[in-house]
Amino acid sequence: VSLKALESARNAKASEGDLEAAIELSDAMSRLKIQANQEHAHDIDSQANAQLDHISETWKSQRSELKGLWSGRLAQMEDVFAADISSLQSQQISERNGFQTQQAKLASCPIAIKGPGIQHNEWGQIQNQRKLRPSVLLLDLDQRYNKAMTTHRYGIAKELREQYQAQALVEWEQQTMKENAEYHSRSNKLEGEHKQQMKALWLRHRSALNELDIKADKELVMCDNYWRKQIQRLKEDTIEQRKQALSC
Coil, strand or helix: which one is 104? Predict the structure, then answer.
């Protein structure tokens, strides 16, 4: 029975003076209105639930897509970082090998000592040899030896020669120790520079990764906030529609 039919019947009974029947029909109309409103409210709830499911699925899909996108960017960045590190390692290995090769060449060529009496121009013509860097004392002994030989003072010359050789040996040991110390110093410096280069590269990579993480988190938060607002708006609209439906 429709509400319009009940209304017509109630009006007819009221016109006939049958108040009891009119009241019964009015009650029936009220019950029918309540039922209709409840059914309308139920339809509103069903539609809202369907919309909520759709929003939730869209939210989930978009969030998954964003995470996949940022994961891909992260993987690309990590590949670039791995290539940078490999390139730097190759460069550093090449530098160390070059340094060690240079030092090996030096080590294979002992320091040569100019013998007493050899002229400096003759000594200067000798190539491809490391030469002892003589001190003032050694140069003085050499000059005195040459002078003694020129003046035929062979006994003094012999003593000066022995002093020269002893002093040259001392200076040879000192120069050898100094060059070894310089080698270790340069080696440690090179190792320190390589560590600093690798550390700086790692810090740049870490900074870039952190920046990427922040951007990814920010975009995911924006996505979540947007869909939360959509759900909140849907709930508010549903509540208002139910109120209107139940107040009719």
Answer: helix
Q: Under 8 Å CB-to-CB from 157, ≥6 apart: which residues?
A: 145, 148, 149
Which 3 state secondary structure label does DSSP give 131? strand
Residue 237 has pLDDT above 80, yes or no: yes
Q: Which amino acid is at 120?
A: H
| The one-letter amino acid at 122 | E
Contact 199, 92 (CB under 8 A): no
Give 59's Cβ-side CA count (13 Å radius).
Answer: 17
Treating both helix axes as pointing N-terminal to C-terminal, what angle do 19-107 and 3-16 enclose, rounded to 10 degrees?
Answer: 160
Sorted by sequence, the CB contacts under 8 Å of residue 37 that are 6+ apart come out as: 245, 246, 248
Return d(Cα 180, Cα 184) in angstroms, integer.
Answer: 6
Burial of 155: CB neighbours in 10 Å, binned 0-12, 13-18, 19+: exposed
Mean pLDDT of the chain: 87
Which tens digit of pLDDT belongs to each residue from 24-49?
888 887 887 877 777 888 888 899 99
Query: Model pTM?
Result: 0.60
Is 157 buried (19+), middle (13-18) or exposed (0-12) by CB count in 10 A? buried
Is 70 exceeded by the pLDDT of residue 117?
Answer: no
* Contact (CB, 8 A) for 55 and 231: yes
Residue 83 tokens, joined: 């290539």
